[in-house]
Amino acid sequence: MSSMAPSADESAPISIPRLVAAPAAITLCVTLVRLAGELGHWSEGLFNRTMGWSIVAIIWLAPIVGIYFALKLAKSGAGPKSFLSSVGYSLLGVVVLLIFAFAPSMLKIQHGFYDRLLYGWAFFVVAALVTRRGWPQLFKVLAVYGFAARIPVAVIMFFAFRGNWGTHYDAVPLDMPALGLTTKYLWLGFFPQLTLWVAYTILAGMLFGTIVSGIARVVRIERGLPV
């Protein structure tokens, strides 16, 4: 398997804002549809108003946009120096995430409410940063997209908390201590959206993007097509 891309990603002339614009717009539409569905009490099976999983959610878009960005970057000549290495670092990021996620229970470490949040934000960010070395340009694009996707959610959450909308945007953990609006929003809305959820977007996008683009490259090589 040849691992070398046509050119190094640092020199690729590609516009990140232009690349991110359409996926970010689609993500915003999904966010607004979910908000409307929760406020309108539409199908609970599609629009979960608790802190659990929901079928209509932007979380599922991260792998898809990761694949889209990776293929676009590779096609433009902004692929990684090594596709094999990019996949390896993406998998390493997932391994780091799992180690940190399960370490407290395995070591029987009890975290308080605030410590648990800080720990969660930190290990997601660390795991995401691990993937950067494999494909810096894809990491950068996913980071820009991640903020574009999550800033609107952070804004919605402020108004949801203030208005007690009864949606997942203002849902709180059962062990949350008594907090004022600003403090509650910062701990449960602003900071997690711009740390943990951006990091998740990078991790998922890097994992699926590197794997699919690597497979696509192998297929093109086997078919004798230019790469």
List keywords for this structure.
227 residues; mainly alpha; 7 helices
Radius of gyration, in angstroms, nearest whole number:
19 Å
Q: What's the number of extended β-strand segments?
A: 0
> Residue ranges: pLDDT <50 for 5 or more in a row?
1-12
The pLDDT mean sits at 92
Distance separating the two termini? 13 Å
- The helical percent reads 55-70%
Number of domains: 1
Main beta-sheet strand count, sense and barrel state? none
Number of helices: 7
Helix and strand content put the structural class at mainly alpha
**Which overall shape is indicated by the principal axes computed on the Cα atoms?**
globular
Strand percent estimate? under 5%
SSE string: HHHHHHH
Tell me what you see in this structure:
It is a single chain. The chain is mainly alpha-helical and 227 residues long. The chain has one domain (9-222). 67% of the residues lie in helices and 0% in strands. The protein has helices at 16-39, 61-75, 83-106, 113-131, 136-163, 181-194, 196-222. Helix 1 (16-39) runs parallel beside helix 5, helix 2 packs antiparallel against helix 5 and helix 4 (113-131) runs parallel beside helix 7. The longest helix is centred in the middle third of the chain and has 28 residues, at 136-163. Mean pLDDT is 92; it is low at 1-12.
